[in-house]
Each structure stands twice: as structure tokens, then as C-alpha cells.
Amino acid sequence: MSIIKLSNVSKKYSNGTTALRNISLEIEPGEFTYIVGPSGAGKSTFIKLLYRELKIDRGSGKVAQYDLAKLRRRDVPMLRRSVGVVFQDYKLLPKKTVYENIAYAMEVIGKRPREIKKRVNEVLDLVGLKHKIRSFPNELSGGEQQRVAIARSIANAPKVLIADEPTGNLDPENSWEIMNLLEKINLQGTTILMATHNSQIVNTLKHRVIAIENGRIVRDQEEGVYGYDD
Ligand code: ADP
Ligand code: ADP
């Protein structure tokens, strides 16, 4: 059974811009999928619908066991437990240490201190940054900050990890390091959905490719290619 399923989903912003039109797709558990397309195509809007940053206004959508159209506001935190999110600009809390940034994601869902401590060490080990546990975000390089953000996103063992341009601010070497991590997380069973403009990555590390243009899905390929010149 699919872990993400959208049927005829549309999204219009309040200013009248239709960002997505009749999007239907299914993603199976454990898949790694790239979302590609020109700037303004609707990729970010698509991703925001999946973790309920935005509400779908037509059609239906399911992520893990949650119905996106029916989910009540008070149940959004439960959805976010099943869906980890990583952004281009990391979005770490600047006044918290690496430890605290990750621990916080677990505290808000009521995990016990002992479990938090164990898990924070575990995910930092996975991303190779245990030695930075006491650092603040501004003491880390961009690549390191993104690795902490990834550690935080998987702290609660989400079924789905969504990444919006995770390598957008990184040089090629750091970008590949991030991809190695996402690959590792995917191999451990997490479904990954990644919006990207990085043609090198898409064309080298082959996975399913879904292309969006003008709010519509125009291509859906197994082991696909990037397909644009930018
Ligand atoms: P992408 O991520 O592919 O660059 P977006 O999802 O950000 O595309 O944008 C899709 C369309 O929706 C664009 O036309 C964009 O200008 C518009 N859009 C994005 N965010 C908003 C918003 N908050 N209000 C109005 N229009 C928006
Ligand atoms: P205990 O009281 O069991 O010794 P602590 O809370 O003092 O546990 O933390 C032990 C280790 O956990 C620290 O050495 C560090 O690696 C990590 N740790 C716990 N809290 C923090 C924090 N706020 N900032 C950085 N590291 C922390």
C-alpha cells in the first residue's frame, strides 16, 4: 500500500495564483523520489501540502495514515511525527546547541529525557557530528548545519523524510555528503521525497523522478533524469 497518495489535488493561493492543478500520484514505502521542475512550477507548494504547512483545497491526500483534507489542527503534530522535513536554509534554532536542537524535536512530543539523550547521540553518530554536540549553529559550516538538520528530522524515526532543496546552499562536496546521508537513511527504510535543482545529483544517483511544470505533473520516470538545462 502506498505511503503517500494524492488524488486530483489542487492548490490556489489567496491572491488567485493556482500553484497546483489536479495532482495525482502514489509513492510506495521505501521509495526515493526526486521532484524537479522550473522555478515557480509548484514544487515547494507540493511539499508544503504533504506536511500540512498548507491545506489542499481540492482533491484528497494521504501521508502515512493521515488524511490531509480531514486532519484537524490539533492532529498536525502527529502527522509531523511521521514526516521529517529538511530545508535549504537548515532552520536550526540559533540560540540552542546541536544537542538541544535535536532534543527539542523529541521533547515537544513528550519523549523521556533518557530516551532523548540516547537517540540524540545515535542520530549525531549517524551524521558524523558527535563531536559538535555542544556547538551552536553559527559555529558550524553550512554542510555541518544541514547534517544536524537531517539528524533532527529523523530523531523521531519518521516514515517519510521530505527535503526541499537540501543541497541548494552547499558546494558539490558537501552536497554529495548530504546525499550519502539521505541514501543511508533511505536504505534503512525511510521513504524520501526531495525537491532539487541539482542535475548532477539526479543524473548520477538514479531514482524515480517526478517533474512538475505549471502546477502539473508532466513526467514520472523510474530511474529518471533531471531533464532541464539549468
Ligand atoms: P517552486 O517551488 O517550484 O519554485 P512554488 O511552489 O514556490 O514553486 O510556487 C508555485 C506558484 O505559486 C508560483 O507561481 C509562485 O509564484 C506561487 N506562490 C508560491 N507561494 C505563494 C504565496 N504564498 N502566495 C501566492 N503565490 C504563491
Ligand atoms: P548525566 O547527568 O547523565 O551525566 P548530562 O545531561 O549531564 O547527563 O549529559 C551527558 C552528555 O549528554 C553530555 O556530555 C553531552 O554529550 C550530552 N548533553 C546533554 N545535555 C546537553 C546539552 N544541553 N548540550 C550539549 N550536550 C548535552
UniProtKB/TrEMBL annotation:
<dbReference type="InterPro" id="IPR017871">
    <property type="entry name" value="ABC_transporter-like_CS"/>
</dbReference>
<keyword id="KW-0472">Membrane</keyword>
<comment type="function">
    <text>Part of the ABC transporter FtsEX involved in cellular division. Has ATPase activity. Essential for cell division and viability.</text>
</comment>
<dbReference type="InterPro" id="IPR015854">
    <property type="entry name" value="ABC_transpr_LolD-like"/>
</dbReference>
<keyword id="KW-0132">Cell division</keyword>
<dbReference type="InterPro" id="IPR003439">
    <property type="entry name" value="ABC_transporter-like_ATP-bd"/>
</dbReference>
<comment type="subunit">
    <text>Homodimer. Forms a membrane-associated complex with FtsX.</text>
</comment>
<dbReference type="InterPro" id="IPR005286">
    <property type="entry name" value="Cell_div_FtsE"/>
</dbReference>
<comment type="similarity">
    <text>Belongs to the ABC transporter superfamily.</text>
</comment>
<dbReference type="GO" id="GO:0022857">
    <property type="term" value="F:transmembrane transporter activity"/>
</dbReference>
<dbReference type="Pfam" id="PF00005">
    <property type="entry name" value="ABC_tran"/>
</dbReference>
<dbReference type="GO" id="GO:0016887">
    <property type="term" value="F:ATP hydrolysis activity"/>
</dbReference>
<keyword id="KW-0067">ATP-binding</keyword>
<protein>
    <recommendedName>
        <fullName>Cell division ATP-binding protein FtsE</fullName>
    </recommendedName>
</protein>
<keyword id="KW-1003">Cell membrane</keyword>
<dbReference type="InterPro" id="IPR027417">
    <property type="entry name" value="P-loop_NTPase"/>
</dbReference>
<keyword id="KW-0547">Nucleotide-binding</keyword>
<keyword id="KW-0131">Cell cycle</keyword>
<dbReference type="GO" id="GO:0005524">
    <property type="term" value="F:ATP binding"/>
</dbReference>
<dbReference type="GO" id="GO:0051301">
    <property type="term" value="P:cell division"/>
</dbReference>
<feature type="domain" description="ABC transporter">
    <location>
        <begin position="4"/>
        <end position="229"/>
    </location>
</feature>
<keyword id="KW-0813">Transport</keyword>
<dbReference type="GO" id="GO:0005886">
    <property type="term" value="C:plasma membrane"/>
</dbReference>
<dbReference type="InterPro" id="IPR003593">
    <property type="entry name" value="AAA+_ATPase"/>
</dbReference>
